[in-house]
C-alpha cells in the first residue's frame, strides 16, 4: 500500500513538472516580430485539422499578434470553450500564468476592412484595446459584427479565414452553447472543475505556422 502511494505521489509530481515545463517561456522581444503579408496557421484539434489563411492588410496588428502567439505555442492544449450553433466558435489561452504574461501588451483597436463572413477569424474583446488572446470563427455570415458597438468599440475586424477543414470547425461540440460563459472564471482558476462540468468540449492539441 505504501509503495502504491509512493508511485502515485511520484506520478503526480511528474505531471506537475510536465505542465510547468510545457508552458512557453515568454519574452517581450517576441512582440516585435512582424507577420508576413500572408501566412497559414494550422490547428490540430480533437476533431481533426483546419487551416486559417491570414491576410495582414485586413488588420495588421491582429495578424502580427496572432503570428507571435501561434509561433510561440500560446494556443496549444486550449479549449473551444464557447461553441454557439449558427453563430461562432470561440477559444483562448486557458493557462492563467501564460495569459498574464501576454495580456499587459495591448493592441490598438483597428477598423473593420473585411466582413465577418462564415469561416472568417476575428479577435474577441471586452473593451478598448483588449484584443490579442481570445479568437472566434464565424459559423455563418455575421455582418452585424462589422458595425456593432460593444464596450465603446465599433466592430470586430477579421484578419483571416478558414481555407481547409471548415467541416472540422462545424463539428466541434456545441451542445453547451453559450452556457459555458457563466462558468468562465472557473475555467481560468479551476480548469479541472470546468472540464468536469463540461467534459465534451473539444480542444486544440497544437497550433503552428504552416507556411508563409
Describe the structure.
The chain is of the alpha+beta class. The protein has a single domain, classed as Cyclophilin-like (Cyclophilin, Beta Barrel). The chain has 7 helices and 11 strands. The chain has a 9-stranded antiparallel β-sheet. A two-stranded antiparallel ribbon has the order 8-9. Strand 8 (149-150) and strand 9 form a beta hairpin. Residues 1-21 have low confidence and may be disordered.
Lateral arrangement of strands in the main beta sheet: 3-11-1-2-10-6-7-5-4
CATH superfamily: Cyclophilin-like
Judged by helices, strands and strand pairing, the structural class is alpha+beta
In round numbers, the mean pLDDT is 88
Named at the architecture level, the CATH assignment is: Beta Barrel
Distance between the amino and carboxyl termini: 55 Å
The radius of gyration over CA amounts to 18 Å
Shape: globular
| Percent of residues in beta strands | 25-35%
Discrete helix count: 7
Q: How many separate domains make up the residues?
A: 1
User: Unreliable segments (pLDDT under 50, ≥5 consecutive)?
Assistant: 1-21
Oligomer: single chain
Percent helix, as a range, is 25-40%
What is the CATH topology?
A: Cyclophilin
Written as H for each helix and E for each strand, in order along the chain, the element string is HEEHEEEHEEHEEEHHHE
Beta strands, count: 11
Largest sheet: 9 strands, antiparallel
Amino acid at each position: 500500500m505504501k509503495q502504491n502511494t509512493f508511485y502515485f505521489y511520484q506520478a503526480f509530481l511528474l505531471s506537475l513538472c510536465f505542465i510547468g515545463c510545457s508552458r512557453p517561456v515568454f519574452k517581450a522581444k517576441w512582440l516585435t516580430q512582424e507577420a508576413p503579408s500572408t501566412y497559414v496557421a494550422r490547428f490540430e484539434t480533437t476533431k481533426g485539422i483546419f487551416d486559417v489563411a491570414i491576410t495582414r492588410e485586413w488588420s495588421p496588428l491582429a495578424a502580427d499578434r496572432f503570428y507571435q502567439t501561434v509561433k510561440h505555442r500560446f494556443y496549444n492544449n486550449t479549449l473551444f470553450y464557447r461553441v454557439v450553433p449558427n453563430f461562432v466558435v470561440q477559444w483562448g489561452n486557458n493557462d492563467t500564468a501564460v495569459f498574464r504574461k501576454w495580456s499587459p501588451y495591448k493592441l490598438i483597436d483597428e477598423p473593420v476592412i473585411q466582413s465577418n463572413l462564415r469561416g472568417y477569424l476575428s479577435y474577441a474583446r471586452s473593451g478598448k484595446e483588449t484584443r490579442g488572446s481570445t479568437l472566434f470563427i464565424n459559423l455563418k455570415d455575421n455582418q452585424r459584427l462589422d458595425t456593432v458597438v460593444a464596450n465603446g468599440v465599433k466592430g470586430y475586424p477579421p484578419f483571416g479565414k478558414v481555407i481547409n477543414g471548415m467541416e472540422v470547425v462545424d463539428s466541434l461540440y456545441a451542445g453547451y452553447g453559450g452556457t459555458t460563459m457563466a462558468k468562465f472564471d472557473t475555467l481560468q482558476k479551476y480548469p479541472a472543475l470546468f472540464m468536469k462540468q463540461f467534459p465534451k468540449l473539444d480542444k486544440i492539441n497544437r497550433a503552428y505556422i504552416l507556411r508563409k
